[in-house]
Specification:
Layout lengths: L20 H10 L3 H11 L7 H13 L3 H14 L4 H13 L3 H14 L4 H13 L3 H14 L4 H13 L3 H15 L5 H13 L3 H14 L4 H34 L2 H10 L1
Helix pairs in contact: 1-2, 2-3, 3-4, 3-5, 4-5, 5-6, 5-7, 6-7, 7-8, 8-9, 9-10, 9-11, 10-11, 11-12, 11-13, 12-13
């Protein structure tokens, strides 16, 4: 049974009787103003009964703006109105997962799958939860099933790639993340390239790893993880180059050592 919704007011009181706040929210979403759209939707439901879809939207927007309690309240209210909807349980599970409430997230994911076994987002959520619990085989099974249901979903490939990084399967990670980048086309987020860099590093492809980390930083110069990863790979590459240079330089020295015993014998006699 899902926990009770937090005691939080979903609607925002106002006296504006002329603005169509639902329409305003949609226009704000079209320009990427998620936080303002959330405020508009909360004003939209003031002094009226919210529909399930409106509650779902408020919950989704609240999750995106990291307002966890508000997201839970909206989504749990939606679930009470329409408990048979798998997508509501999936979104609620995402909120729990992002809040590190793994038991609640797992319960929501299981319910989402029970309600609709053909819901790829529910299987993807199950995989992410299993990853958070370090249950690698369960995570792989869930993510692969999500990809069977939705093979062109770039984020599912990204998640599979990240899983294979955790499992130390570099080649599989590279394949999954290169597929993710290809499917995202020019919409890939900086963290996808960071993950691709980690995959290449794990597979021993250091030049490709450096390029991926540099791409992540081109997209987000303040992305500290990519900065750390790039420094580490560059250090590794420098160490390899120095080692190779030393080994190359050591070849004639080794040949000279073969003649050394005679000289040492002369010295010993002296």
């Amino acid at each position: 049974m899902a926990p009770e919704a937090p005691a939080i007011e979903l609607a925002i009181a106002h006296q504006d009787e002329t603005t169509d706040f639902a329409d305003l929210a949609q226009r704000q979403l079209d320009t990427g103003d998620v936080k303002d759209a959330l405020t508009s939707m909360r004003k939209h439901i003031f002094a009226r009964e919210a529909t399930v879809d409106e509650l779902f939207l408020i919950g989704n927007l609240a999750r995106q703006t990291h307002e966890g309690d508000l997201a839970k309240a909206a989504l749990q209210a939606a679930v009470k109105l329409q408990p048979e909807r798998s997508d509501l349980q999936t979104e609620l599970g995402r909120v729990f997962l992002e809040g590190k409430a793994l038991a609640e997230a797992e319960a929501a994911a299981e319910e989402a799958v029970r309600l609709d076994r053909e819901n790829p987002a529910a299987w993807n959520l199950s995989g992410r939860i299993a990853m958070a619990k370090s249950e690698w085989q369960l995570a792989e099974a869930a993510l692969l099933h999500a990809l069977e249901l939705d093979p062109t979903n770039a984020m599912y490939h990204n998640n599979a790639g990240l899983l294979y990084i955790y499992m130390k399967r570099g080649d599989d990670a590279v394949e999954s993340l290169e597929t993710a980048v290809e499917l995202f086309e020019d919409q890939a987020e900086h963290f996808v390239f960071n993950n691709l860099g980690l995959a290449h590093e794990l597979a021993g492809n250091y030049e490709e790893a450096r390029e991926a980390f540099e791409e992540a930083l081109l997209m987000n110069p303040y992305y500290s993880r990519a900065k750390v990863n790039l420094r580490r790979v560059e250090t590794t590459m420098a160490q390899i180059e120095a080692k190779n240079a030393f080994q190359t330089a050591s070849v004639p020295a080794a040949e000279e050592v073969q003649e050394a015993p005679g000289a040492l014998e002369v010295g010993d006699d002296t």
